[in-house]
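PT: before anyone asks, these are the final sequences, not the draft ones from last week. 237 residues across everything. Please model them as a single complex and drop the result in this thread when it's through.
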Amino acid sequence: MALLEVEDLRTGYGVLPVLQGISFSVEEGETAVLFGLNGAGKTTTVNAIAGLLPAWEGQIRLDGKVVSGLEAPKVVAAGIGLSPEGRRVFPALSVLTNLRLGAWTRKADGKKAADETIQQVFSYFPRLEERKDQLAGTMSGGEQQMLAIGRAVMSKPRVLLIDEASLGLSPKLAQTVFQVVSKINDDGTTVLIVEQNVGVLPYADQALIMEKGTITYDGRGAELEKSGDLRKTYLGT
Ligand SMILES: Nc1ncnc2c1ncn2[C@@H]1O[C@H](COP(=O)(O)OP(=O)(O)O)[C@@H](O)[C@H]1O
Ligand SMILES: [Mg+2]
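LR: through. Structure below.
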């Protein structure tokens, strides 16, 4: 059984359907990348998995347990963390406070446990430690991206969802972020990352392509380049 299972998921906004009944799963310990043009439904997919949008039909399961239908905080507590599109850090709060807020579903674990996870986040992103007292809103786009990922890591997710990790970052910084995500994955977190930058491909165990609310490719990352499906999607050739 895969760790994350999405089965016949249908959802959208108001009466407008976006996801047309999609199914895919992500194996424990792997990194899956979800590619697709703007408007394909990638954000709708990860937001639905995170419980921010209700599933109209179908089911989302984590380790066999149904999480669709749970409210977003319960989904986080169940083990799914989201670094959302557009980062959405709290601009008027410090880096440290943003990180602490990411651990709010783990209150019962106590402050010491949260502090340990903060140290772990700092080891992934030393820049965040250097800037721990800075207000998040005054940081660069790349630093805010690190913070958004770090904040999601604070919930100690079993599955980490990252929506558009490299959007607006320089190619070099994008690679840095991919490398850290790869390290987070190596440390045992299963990752589903939404990307339009094909530079992420070397880190992808699994690759998915979404077009108009359906999954049109689901295979091994290493085979996607050979298949030509990416070129077809992004360049129409
Ligand atoms: N809040 C919303 N209200 C209505 N329609 C939306 C909303 N968010 C996204 N959509 C529509 O849903 C479709 C998929 O969007 P989205 O999931 O954001 O795509 P992607 O992340 O792949 O760019 C698009 O047609 C978009 O216009
Ligand atoms: Mg999106």
